[in-house]
Specification:
With 513 residues, this protein is of the alpha/beta class. It is built from 16 helices and 19 strands.
Length: 513
Amino acid sequence: MASSVIASPSTAFIHKTDVGLSAFSSSSALSSQISVSKSKSAKCSKRIVSVMAPQQAERVPSTTSSVKTAMTLTEKILARASEKTQLTPGENVWVDVDVLMTHDVCGPGSFDIFKREFGANAKVWDREKIVIIPEHYIFTNDERANRNVDILRDFCKEQNIKYFYDITDRSNFKANPDYKGVCHVALAQEGHCRPGEVLLGTDSHTCTAGAFGQFATGIGITDAGFVLGTGKILLKVPPTLRFVMDGEMPDYLLAKDLILQIIGEISVAGATYKSMEFVGSTVESLTMEERMTLCNMVIEAGGKNGVVPADSITHKYLEDKTAIPYEPVYSDDGARFLAEYRFDISKLEPLVAKPHSPDNRALARECKGVKIDRVYIGSCTGGKTEDFLAAAKVFLASGKKVNVPTFLVPATQKVWMDIYSIQVPGSGGKTCSQIFEEAGCDTPASPSCGACLGGPRDTYARMNEPQVCVSTTNRNFPGRMGHKEGQIYLASPYTAAASALTGYVTDPREFLM
C-alpha cells in the first residue's frame, strides 16, 4: 500500500514515499486509505556556529503582551499541570498528578519504594487521588498472586485509601460488591477519568483514559513510589503526531480495525515517546468505549499517550459518573504537529495483526486459510460491553454454532451484568448471554484480565499448549497468552466472532453483509 508524503523542501522526509508497507500483499486494495504529511508548522532545528555575531539594530517589540506559541492538547494539559504558560516538546517539567492508579502486579513494589524513600510510617500525598484495583491475577490458586492482593489490602487499610476495589471471596466475584475488574475499564466506569486532567497508572495501557481528553500514561514502580509521596512527577513533554480519520465507518469495522491500521502504518516504534492525537469525523462518531479501544493500543506503537478531544459524547458519558468539575482543553489552530496522517476510513477493510507483533498487519480475508484452535474475547481492549454486543451481533446473524472453543472474559463486573441484561438489537429480546449460549460459547467468566497476559498456569483460558488463537486483546508477542509457541492473531470482536464460527481467520463481512 503506497502512501503519499507531502512535505516542504526543508523537511527530513522529502524523499520518503512509502511508510513501512513492504510486507503488504494487497497494496492496491489499500493504497487510497492514507496520506501522510509532515506538518507545515513543524520546524527543523539547525545548529549554527559563528565566531562573531553580526551587529544588530535594536528591536522594538511588536506587542506589549506576552508572545505565546500555539500548543497541542497534550502540551496544554501538561502546561496547566506544571503551572506554566507555555511548553514545547522536549522540555522537562514537574507535573501535578490528578489520579494515580496501581494494581496487584505493580502495587506491592510501588508501596515498598514509597516506604523506603519516605519512611515506614509515611502517609500518601492524597488518599482520595489514589485508585487501587486488583485485576490481573485474581481467580487463581497461586499463593504469590494471592499474596499481592493481601498486600494491597493492608496498604489501603493503613493509608485509609478511599478508592480500593477489593475482592475477598474469590469463589464468587458477585459476593464482592466493591470488586470491579480490569482497571482501565473500571477507571472510566467509576468516574476517575476526566478531560484536562493527568492520570498515571502502573500499567502500560493506562493510555486508554486518553479517550476522555486527558493526559494518561503508564509509569514504573519507582515513579509510582515517588508520586505516592509527593503527588508530582517529572515528565518530558512529548511531540504530537496527529491522526485524522474521516469518512463514514462501514458497519463491519470497529475501532480495533482503526488502531491496527495505524500501528501497521507506523510500526510498533513509530510513535516512541510521542503523543498520538485522534481527530476527524470518524473519531467524532465513535462511542466512548470505541474511543477507549483506539487509545488503549497507542502503547503498541510506542506512544507516550493517546488522546481524543472531549466533546458532547464525552460529557454525556460522564454525566452520572463524576461530580468533580473538569475543564477540557483543545489543540490550537496553529499547534505544531510532528507529522499528520490522514485516513479515509470508508475504504478500510477488516484487519488482523498476525503473530508475533501488533504491527504485522494483514487483511482478514487474506488469512482465510489460517486454521485456528480457539477464540478469546476479553481484556481492556476487547472486553467491554460494546465488544460483547458486537460479537453477539455476528453470532446472531449467522445462526450457527462456533467451531472452536470460544472464551468470553468480561472486563468488569458491570460488563458481566450487561452481558446478562442488555438486549441485543434485532434479536427479539435476547441478551448477549443467551446468544452466546445458543452459539456454543463458553459461559462468560469472572471479570479480570484473564489470559490476556498469560498469568499463573490455572488462569482461565490460558494457552497452556502451542495453539493458534484469534483474540480481541492487545499484544501477540511469543508467550503473551501463555505458551511461548502459541500464535495470536489480534482482531476486532467482529472478526473474532466470525473466526469462531468457521474455525479459520475470517472476514466478518461473510456474516454481516
